[in-house]
């Protein structure tokens, strides 16, 4: 039963992450932040190594944040498939009188 509970949690978490990724305001924010950081990076003085590095790292942090949500969505899909398989197996056992 612990396995089923974990799958249910992961599926729920994946659905919530999917709702975030489908939220127009959030996707607009990711895109705007990245565009602003790239513009600042391009406009920076070539001698401002520290400033350029900060922009570079901020761009990657923004992308990693979004990639984390995508990963949670994918984990949720796997968990939902596992739940379906557990339910199908339980139904087969019940049908054949093994439970």
What is the number of helices? 3
Reading the helices and strands in chain order gives HHH
E-strand count: 0
Provide the residue-averaged pLDDT. 94
Cα-atom radius of gyration: 22 Å
What portion of the residues fall into strands of 2 or more residues? under 5%
Number of individual domains: 1
Largest sheet: none
Helix proportion of residues, in percent? over 70%
Low-pLDDT regions: none
**Dominant shape:** rod-shaped
Structural class: mainly alpha
What's the N-to-C terminus distance? 15 Å
Structure notes:
- It is built from three helices and no strands.
- It is mainly α and 99 residues long.
- The protein has one domain (2-95).
- It is rod-shaped, with a radius of gyration of 22 Å.
Main attributes?
99 residues, mainly alpha, rod-shaped, 3 helices
Q: What order do the helices and strands come in, and which of them pair?
A:
Elements: H1 2-21, H2 24-43, H3 49-95
Compact description:
The protein is mainly alpha-helical. The chain has helices at 2-21, 24-43, 49-95.
């Amino acid at each position: 039963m612990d396995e089923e509970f974990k799958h249910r949690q992961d599926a729920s978490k994946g659905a919530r992450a999917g709702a975030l990724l489908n939220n127009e305001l959030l996707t607009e924010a990711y895109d705007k932040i990245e565009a602003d950081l790239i513009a600042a990076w391009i406009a920076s003085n070539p001698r401002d190594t520290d400033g350029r590095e900060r922009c570079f790292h901020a761009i990657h942090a923004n992308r990693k944040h979004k990639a984390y949500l995508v990963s949670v969505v994918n984990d949720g899909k796997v968990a939902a498939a596992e739940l379906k398989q557990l339910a199908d197996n339980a139904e087969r056992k019940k049908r054949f009188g093994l439970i």
